[in-house]
Amino acid sequence: MALSHLTRRQQGLLLTGTGVLLISPDALLIKVIGLPDAEILVWRGLLTALGFLAIVVARHGRGAATAYRRCGWTGIGVALLFSFSTLGFVLGNQYTRGGNVLMILAGAPLIAALLSRVFLQERLPRRTWLAILACLVGIVLIALDDVGVGSWRGNAFALLAATAMAANFTLCRTRQGVDMSPMLTLAGVIVAAAAALYGLAGPGMTLPSGHTLMWLLVLCLGLLPLGFTLLQRGPLYLPAAEVGLLMLLEVVVGTLWIWWLLGERPSPAAFAGGALVLGSLLLKGLVDRRVERARRPGCSAA
Question: What is the mean predicted confidence (pLDDT) over 132-145?
Answer without folding.
Answer: 79
